[in-house]
Each structure stands twice: as structure tokens, then as C-alpha cells.
Amino acid sequence: MKRYERLTEEITASIRSGLLRAGDRLPSVRQTSASRGVSPSTVFKAYYLLEARGLIRARDRSGYYVLRAPQAELPEPDGLSSASAGRHPVDVSDNVLQVLNATLRRDMLPFGSAFPSPSLLPYGRLAKFMAATVQRLDPWGSIDDLSPGDAALRRAIALRYLADGLSVPVDDIIITNGALDALNLSLAAVTQPGDAVIVESPTFYAALQSLERNHLHAIEVATHPREGIDLQALEEAILRHRPRACWLMTTFQNPLGSLMPDDKKEALVRLLARHGVALIEDDVYGELYFGENRPRPAKAFDRDGIVMHCSSFSKTLAPGYRVGWVAAGRYTRQIMRNKLTTSLATAAPTQAAIAAYLEKGGFDRHLRQFRQALALQQGELLQAVARYFPKGTRATRPAGGYFVWVELPAHIDTLKVHRAALGHGISIAPGPLFSSSGAFGNFLRLNGGHPWNPEMEQGMATLGKLLA
């Protein structure tokens, strides 16, 4: 164990034993650093982790205080998911739209939402950059960069890749109308109607909607709740079905929250390159890690240009601005052609505003605060699941993002629970949304991207009663 992890466990044990009780003030960072013989940064990391677990809370100008004794952690879903065999035509849009319409209402507790709370995003500061950059927009410049996107923004994105150890040419980066546009353009670059595409099981419902719209077949492959898609099952599916592409989330997958280790990502890219299968990598949550360093995407191991790395600012900065991108590799020219014949361009003012914000707005400082809030909220959410949900419940503990995947006792039908919860002003995302075959009937996805408050706590208590 690292020093901060050892300190975290020692303090947790003191809280569990009753030596430290709810309301007690922890020693200051300076005191703990001196008494334990560790650096202040080690103490800060330990306190940060204790906050994420919902055990302590910082008070302004006062220090850290114990919130509650730790409950026994829920077990995680165990082993690989059971993927339905074969290739399937996709027909999920009606179910998805029905559920999503409910999650978008402001009067609903947003456990079923796909977005973080707007209160955690720097809309005010971003608006100032928007006002300033709109006045300076060069009309000719917006035409020069029409389809590939704003040159300053593409350069800023390339620099962020470089800071993470990836050398991505600026000319390989195409700005899109959000990540979903990037993913759809990538899909169109490598498939024709009737082709098969591999997805995780469970997978993000927007991926299934895209396959449905493009008349493609889904091949669901068993996926581990912590480490992502099973590579042996993936190779077997490739040999059997000859897919044209894989659409995967290798980092903080939605809905599982799984994080594929680096060695497995490298093996994934080698496997796909060997079989000539393109990888569409959906990496919209990569910046939302709770550890010390950002996990590397599969794109970092791409030597042949087969990975189309898609991301956006929708989950980290401003959902409504709809600015995403794809680092397209060998498919750059085809994706550019697809964009010219579909959306043509991305709005120039939003691109310019985000480019200016990345240069001078303190994006990394915002991300640090945002990640800390998400980690704390995840801890609160998991504690509530442990308090209120029925015996036999399991839940993932992702190392980033803001989703938790919950496995309930086998007899529970989460589609019925979803309908009942709406009557109490609560939204959830039932498991069948995340499968082309309607599997995962006793699973649900919960959103931990909203600040915890008494209403959220009461909503979880109500949801627990409905589940019981």
C-alpha cells in the first residue's frame, strides 16, 4: 500500500472502532504530517480519499470532521456479464426515449440522468470568454476552418494529448458537434448497412441507437465490471462474425464505470490490428479520474492508425455547447468527407470560446475541483445504496466518472421500478436500456454527478422502499 492509502485505512479503523466519532474534528494536515512523519501531500491525499468514501467532510476555515462510521462496503458485481450470443438487429429507441424524457424534467431527482449537475460546471466564466471572443471573430477564419474546425481549438486539444504523452497531429483532429457526432462520423467511415459492430455488454444506449439508425447489427461481448471487455470473448466474436468495427469505452465505461488496465488496452489494440478491425474509442469520461494521473486511452497504443479517439467537452465543461472531436488516424480523410456531407461545420462562436478558455480560463483547476466533487458524491451515493437497498445488492466502485452500476436481487424488474419511481419524482436508468436484447432486467445505473443534499438522501430512501 502507498503511504496515503495506509493512513486512510488507519483513520478508517479509528472511525470504525469508535475512537473517532461523528462530529469529531480530525487533526490538522500539519499536525498529522508531523505526528506520522509523512508529507502534507500524503495527508491531503488520505483526507481526500476519506471524503470520497463519505467518512469525513471539510468545513471552510475549520478543518476536517467525521461524518459517520463506515458501513460494510457492498460487494461488486462478480465476474463477466452474460452477453447474448450472436448478432442482433437493434431496436431500442422507443424505450430509450421514453426513459430519457422523464430524466430531463427539472422536478425529478436526477439519478437516471446522463449529465453532471450544471452547478459544478463553470458556465459563468465560460460565458465571459464567449462574449469576448465573439467580438473578435474573423469571418474569413471561420470559413477557412469550416469542416476541420477552429485551428486554435485543434491545437489546444493536440497540446492536451501531448501533455498526456500522446503525439497526435493537429491535422488528424476534426472538431464535431459533440462526441456523439464524432462517434457517428467514425461509424459511417468504416461500415455499411448490414455490417456488424462489436459493443460491450452492457453498453451505452446511444451506441445502440446509432447502430439502429445506421441499420447495423450489434454483437454484444462479455465485459468485466472493473476491467472492461473480455479479450478472449472479443477474439472469438471477431472470428465468428467478422465485424467491421468495435465501439468501446475503455476508460470509465458507461454504465459500468470499468477501467481497462494499460496492458489490456495495449493487447486490445494489437488484437484489433491483427484482425483488421477498427476501434471507435468513446473517451468522454477520461478527464474525470479520481487518482493521481489520467488513464491512458487505447489510442496511446495505436501504431497503425486504426483507433478513432472520440471525446468532447460536454461531460467536463459545457453540455449545451456541443463541442467534441475525433482524432481520426488513418480515417481522417473519410471522416472529413462525411462531415462535409452531413453537419458541414461546428458553430464557430462556441469553438472560439472554448479555445480561449483552454488557454486562459483555468480548465485544469476546474477539473481538479470537479473531480473532487464527483469522488465525494460517489461516496455519498454508495453509502446510501448500502443503507437503503435490499439485501443481496451489489454495486460497482468506479475510479472515475459519475456512474454506479447496481445489481439487485434477481426477482426485481427495474423497468417496473422505473415507472413506480417516476410517481415519486425520482428518475433511474433501468438495465435493459443498455442491451440490444433487453438483458440486465435486475440492474440499474445511478448518476452520482449531482451534489448530495437531504432531497437526494430521501430519494434514495424512497427508492429503497420501492425496491423492497
Written overview of the protein:
The chain is α/β, with parallel strands linked by helices and 468 residues long. It has 16 helices and 15 strands. It has helices spanning 3-17, 29-36, 40-52, 93-103, 123-136, 139-144, 151-163, 178-190, 205-213, 231-241, 262-275, 332-341, 348-360, 363-388, 414-422, 454-467, and strands spanning 56-59, 63-66, 87-89, 173-176, 196-201, 217-224, 228-229, 245-248, 278-282, 307-312, 324-327, 394-395, 403-407, 429-430, 443-447. The strands form three sheets. Strands 3, 4, 5, 6, 7, 8, 9, 10 and 11 form a nine-stranded mixed sheet that branches. A four-stranded antiparallel sheet has the order 12-13-15-14, with helices on one face. Helix 1 (3-17) packs across helix 3. The longest helix has 26 residues, at 363-388. The mean pLDDT is 91. It holds the Pfam family Aminotran_1_2. In the C-terminal section; belongs to the class-I pyridoxal-phosphate-dependent aminotransferase family.
